[in-house]
Specification:
Layout: E1 2-7, E2 10-19, E3 22-32, H1 35-47, E4 55-60, E5 65-71, H2 77-88, E6 99-106, E7 109-116, H3 117-129, E8 133-139, H4 140-156, E9 160-165, E10 170-177, E11 180-188, H5 196-216, E12 223-228, H6 237-245, E13 252-254, E14 261-262, H7 274-284, H8 313-344, H9 346-370, H10 380-389, E15 395-402, E16 405-413, H11 416-425, E17 433-434, E18 439-440, E19 447-454
Parallel strand pairs: 1-4, 3-14, 4-8, 9-12, 12-13
Antiparallel strand pairs: 1-2, 2-3, 5-7, 6-7, 9-10, 10-11, 15-16, 16-19, 17-19, 18-19
Helix pairs in contact: 2-8, 4-7, 5-6, 9-10
Length: 462
């Protein structure tokens, strides 16, 4: 079995087989991801006796995908799909009509995996173009988490770990609690070349992602930070992450796949092999894997059963007539169950809609505020306080901070009294006072203001 992981212009390959129930690594390598170059690489290595597998598993990144656990009543596959689409419609990062869904039921719990159909078909076509038979298609964060659980189980099952899978094209932040993947957030890739600007942008987005996660669902207790992926060993990356999360560099750990048996002559796998190893692991031990996205593709002709032509027409008609009543009764019961379930979920869908809108406003506002650059570098607590206090319609035009003092906070607001009252309720901003006199903008659309004062949370004065 081959696990294939594409990262921009590079393709990472891990070949495994199961020996006495334990995965055995037969080969590992990398090559350009262009089809012709990848085929030439595989052909050359096969002449050497490596990468002889003809089935492969691949992955999609976190961006533009979704994995969610739902509670659904017992339904037919078609009704299960309709119910999942209805429950997740507000969460899809793409139109629901373009969704490719796969699911697995355990009692009333249904684990649903979704991605844009075009992305699933593109990955399947890529494997076919390499003369490989597609076996599975999974979300990369789930594959990384599986490889980590396989090699680091005891360490993961007793705490909270933030895993940063660092890549050229698209990085991901994974939050694991007691070995279970609870959250995955896309982060920018680090590019092909070492770049200070890329590291700075990555650190800024990482701080924002951590702040949003902590505000939406705070965590308690100690937190460990692990690095893995193709870019995990780049010079300066550990220091950049340490500065972004405010820990010492030596507290951040770089991890690679471990726990796998290796064929003689195969070197230990590096961090760049983590996703490919997890993909091969899912293919070899499918009972540990999430739903396969390839199951969500409706391949033309796949639903046509030629053996049905061998059934005598009379037998078909007999079963049709005899079973029509029972089929109608079953369909009615199923429809009633689905209708009852949908009615119970109306309030939940409304809540999810509000949550999505609030999350979008929060993200946009924080990105707007962090756009002020170096002037507010390191003041994430101040930015979060601003987002909580700024009334709707308020627009900031300048922020100047010196140490623990705001030298100038300038902008336009529909109501200055509302703004000052909101700041008075925010502990960190209570010390800000109006500097000079407010003025009305042209056309009377708002009041211009300049505030200044200490970030002490309790200043008095006028």
């Amino acid at each position: 079995m081959l696990g294939l992981d594409r990262d921009g212009e590079t393709l990472y390959l891990v070949e495994m087989r199961k020996t006495r129930g334990v995965p055995l690594v037969l080969a590992f390598g990398s090559c350009p991801s262009a089809v012709e170059e990848a085929k030439a690489f595989l052909s050359a290595r096969r002449h050497e006796g490596h990468f002889t597998a003809v089935t492969a598993a691949a992955a999609l990144g976190r961006h533009g995908t979704l994995q969610k656990e739902l509670e659904l009543p017992p339904l037919s596959p078609a009704a299960t799909r309709k119910a999942a689409l209805a429950a997740l419609e507000e969460r899809f990062p793409f139109p629901a009509a373009e969704a490719c869904l796969a699911w697995r039921r355990r009692g009333r719990s249904v684990l649903v995996v979704a991605a844009r159909r075009a992305a699933v078909e593109e990955q399947r076509s890529f494997l076919l173009s390499l003369d490989l038979r597609p076996r599975r298609l999974d979300l990369r964060p789930a594959a990384v988490a599986a490889a980590l659980r396989f090699g680091y189980g005891p360490e993961l099952f007793s705490g909270q770990v933030i895993v940063l899978e660092l890549r050229t094209a698209e990085s991901t932040m994974l939050f694991l609690r007691d070995g279970r993947l609870e959250y995955a957030h896309p982060l920018p890739g680090l590019g092909r070349e070492e770049s200070t600007e890329a590291l700075s942008a990555f650190g800024r987005d990482l701080r924002l992602a951590l702040a949003l996660r902590q505000e939406q669902e705070p965590w308690d207790g100690p937190l460990s930070f692990w690095l893995t992926g193709p870019a995990a060993t780049r010079p300066g990356i550990r220091e950049a992450v340490a500065a972004a999360v405010n820990v010492a560099p030596e507290e951040i750990r770089v991890v690679a796949p471990r726990g796998f048996l290796r064929h003689p002559g195969v070197a230990p796998l590096g961090p760049e092999a983590m996703a490919a190893a997890g993909l091969a692991l899912f293919a070899l031990i499918p009972q540990e894997a999430p739903p396969d996205l390839l199951d969500g593709l409706e391949v033309p002709g796949a639903a046509f059963d030629r053996r049905a032509l061998l059934l005598p027409l009379g037998l078909v008609l007999a079963f049709t007539l005899a079973g029509s009543y029972f089929l109608a009764a079953a369909a009615k019961k199923e429809t009633e169950a689905l209708a009852a379930w949908l009615a119970d979920r109306e309030k939940e869908l409304a809540r999810l809609t509000r949550y999505r809108e609030e999350s979008a406003v929060l993200t946009a506002r924080l990105r707007l505020l962090t756009g002020f650059g170096g002037e507010v570098e390191g003041s994430l607590e101040f930015l979060l306080a601003l987002h909580r206090a700024l009334p709707p319609g308020t627009r900031l035009t300048r922020i100047a901070i010196a140490g623990d003092r705001v030298e100038a906070l300038e902008g336009v607001t529909p109501s200055l009294s509302t703004l000052l009252a909101a700041f008075a309720r925010e502990p960190l901003l209570r010390g800000l006072r109006l500097h000079g006199r407010a003025s009305v903008t042209e056309g009377g659309a708002g009041e211009r203001f300049v505030l200044a004062g200490p970030l002490t949370g309790g200043g008095e004065g006028g």
